[in-house]
Amino acid sequence: MATTRTLQDVVFVDGARTPFGKAGPKGQYAQTRADDLMVKVIRELLRRHPELPPERIDEVAVAAATQTGDQGLTIGRTSALLAGLPRSVPGFAIDRMCAGAMTAVTTVASGIAVGAYDVAIAGGVESMTNHPIGQGADPNPRFVADRLVDPAALNMGNTAENLHDKYPQLTRERADAYAAESQRKYAQALAAGKIAPDLVPVATRSVEQGWGLATADEPPRPGTTAESIANLKTPFRPHGRVTAGSSSPLTDGATGCLLAAADVAAELGLPVRMRMVGFAFAGVDPETMGDGPIPATEKALAKAGLTIDDIGLIEINEAFAVQVLAFTDHFGLADDDPRLNQYGGAIAIGHPLASSGVRLMTQLARQFGERPDVRYGITTMCVGLGMGGTVIWENPNFVEGDAK
Amino acid sequence: MTSSTEPSTTAAADTHALELPGEVVTTATTRLIDVPGVDGKVALISLDNGQDHTRPSTFGPAGLRSLDAALDQAFEAAPAAIAVTGKPFVFAVGADLGGIGLLPNRDAAKAIGQLGHAVFRRLHDSQIPTFAFVNGAALGGGVEVGLHCHYRTLASNAAMMALPECFLGILPGWGGTQLLPKIAGPESAVTVIIENALNQNRMMKPKDALKLGVVDVVLDAADYLEQSLAWLAGVLDGSITVQRKEYGEADYAAAIERGRTISGMRTHGASAAPDRALDLIELSRTADLAVGFAAEDDALADLITSSEFRAGLYSFNLTQKRARKPVGAPDASLARPVSKVGVVGAGLMAGQLALLFARRLHVPVVLTEVDQDRLDRGIAAVHAEIAKLAGKGRISRDEGNRLTALVSGSLDYAVFADADFVIEAVFEELEVKKQVFGELEKFVSPEAVLATNTSSLSVAAMADGLQHPERVVGFHFFNPVAMMPLLEIVKIEGTDDAALATAFALAKQLKKGPILTADATGFVVNRLLLRFMGEILAAIDEGTPPEVADGALAPLGLPMTPIMLLQLVGPAVALHVQETLNASFPDRFVVSANLRRTVDAGVKALIAWNPDGSQGISPEVAELWQLGDSPSTAEQVRERALAALATEARLMLDEGVVAEAADIDLAMLTGAGWPFWLGGITPYLDREGISERVTGQRFNPPGVATLPA
Question: Which residues contact B260 (CB under 8 A, 6 or more apart)?
Fold first, then answer.
């Protein structure tokens, strides 16, 4: 007779990431393999937690939006083997485009909740140097023939322009102001030492310059102001609104986190930095995929029995400034609501597609540590082809009575 | 710029003229990087020759000057630390050997030593902490760069680390003999510089290098460079300390004594390099670095311009290059696939062959014998060998199961019907072998290669009368089959290219370094060894005391004396081969009466331990052997034996047994284990003037495997 099934609480033990690099031949990872980036993150998580016997890890789920070449061959398994995890530890590859790592987290969390896993690693990697978005994809001709999706929706910049059309109140000026603020908040967090602790230094190879060490994010442009980006070109549409200044740059990087069942974390002495409350994914029009976080968050809040007013911290991926503003407008938040992206966002840090979800979580976990007054936070992001994903987290440091 | 931390002169200033032709330049690139936990920059120097890992980075004068310039740049930046690392999988594998072997004279040889010292020393003398991040293969000068640094980390996947200089006939002359004893102690220095080098050029694995103290820490390959830099930060902030021991006079004395014993055993004084290296290790205890390095420069210059090193380099190239690209092999594309192997016989030799075929080819190997009992015993013996390998962890249990299933036996030749290659290893009797081939031909396909492992019989005679003699080859292994790299592949008149190509392809899969020989009695190795041994035995038969005759070749530093070799081969086998050779070449191969006496008496142990612990002729043999009344001196015996070798080698070339003297030398190096410093044998015969005196000509012009004229 099988043992009786009990649901397990899922906790976020720790997260780490590589410094992000600019995609392209001049970026710091121009000659570095994607799987190697992922390996460094896994090794760092294990190094930070010697109390975790590696053989207790039951799964390694790694996301990549393109799963060929150095991101191919089931990257969850290859990176586990390359990182020196015991061969008994399995792994798989997972894809939900930009929400890959987020989906890796929710998938293994589901496994933990039903008791299938004790401890799992979830993460994501994208070398946009080696794998430009949509590389090798062969869209079905019915998308066009049957008018299932406007072909222009396969270009993310176009969908951001479409979002400006959909919400005329979201002007270029508001988007540029938001983008400049993202850069400023990142610079401030960096200076305050809030970024470096989550980074894993990565040795970078360059045939021309010799070996280097990546210790910092490369994409941010400190000193950016709304004025300084006001005259940038709009590459997606003549006289459009979306510019390089208000978009996340093409980026290389990897992220990873350790998740565990609450009782296993207690057994092994693993720290608990966040407790998962719930999650939801939702679909929207592919042509305005930036809307995705709105229904995903509504759905997740409803399932958890919470409202947006219960949420004290929000980590939202900034694929484009307009898509964040669509979210804040929907929930009646100010463009500069203090709960939002305290360390800046992807417009500054960069957005290595499938890996970004776990960056949001790692940063939320750090903010939870600083904010015992906050009980709940969310991580949310939009996804290509019209989706959104939201995970709600509870702060284990929360002290009743201080609630805000 | 902080002049206090920068050695005052740039090392390469007065050596700009020094050049090595064809140097593939290893470029050193300095990059200033930030490392978490380190105040200020770290200057990280990458060594990279721009080729992939199959062409590892080496140092020649241009490479050394590049490192010198990279160090200028590093010191100029006044960094918190300087670290040196390599390209993927390779740190650096030492001096550009090809170039070193072409240095025109002693002055140039000395200059290259001095240049290396001057550049590397900057890492040693630096006031700024210096680190070697040995990320991959490190040999010779590559290891020495690391020894000059104050600290060393090593990657857990580094394929090899060694100071192989003494193996080639030189010594670690870029600081190795002076620094390693101080860092790792004289005992470890002797192990690395002398013992390992003379033990078939044994390489250290990372755990060995750590245990010997050659490196301070081994770090996992998965994030080696990152963790090396974190380790560096730990050393700088004091959270990591490296303990180094002091070594006293007694430590040195014991180590040097051990080194001398090893050197004596391995070289018998025939190669100067190990003893010069030991002198330098001894010197390192008392001499300051300037004196020690100057002594290294002189010793290295002497050795680079020695005949032994020229021969060593030649030998190295034969075993590394010619063995992999055998001369005379037909186009590899003509080779037919071998998906099943037959072995006729199930005795000791047949069993060794079966195991080798199964391990290397992973195809079914079927053995046959004359009766079930012998067959069962033979198969059981092979299976037991496989179990032993698995038991020792040399192969996995699954691999053991696989090999066991691959090796089977049958009394019925019909099992060979689908074999692509059948080798006979039955008794050395021509009629028996002919019968085996004749019987095989009834069952195998017309293309199946029929091979013989005969050591001295005529392969053509075995093929005579076959319907398809064109598929017959000789395939002569050396004992022990798993260890000895040589394979003599014998082509008879009618052997076609496809059969021969198949044989060579098979040799490669078996990881052997074959030579092509003609169908001449004894092929190469046995013919030379027996000719040479015949002279020693003849001298004894004539009246030379056995000890005198047996010791006559000592100055060559052969791995064993002729009579030890005779014991190893077995007197009965030796007699049989000698008789065969005598039948072919009656004027040069004489059958020794004392050898026949030994076999008749059934004596197998020829060598015994003397009461004083040395080895000598056993009393039983001394009593058995009858000496004539015209004794020779040791010198006369040596002259005679060497003259015989020169004559026989020249005849082989004249008869077309092999294509070139290099094949004879390769065969003697890898089939008889003759030492590198002899260059096999012909470079030695040339440099001693024997070939010219005896045959009227050299084997190779001066400068090829010998010093230039």
Answer: B275, B278
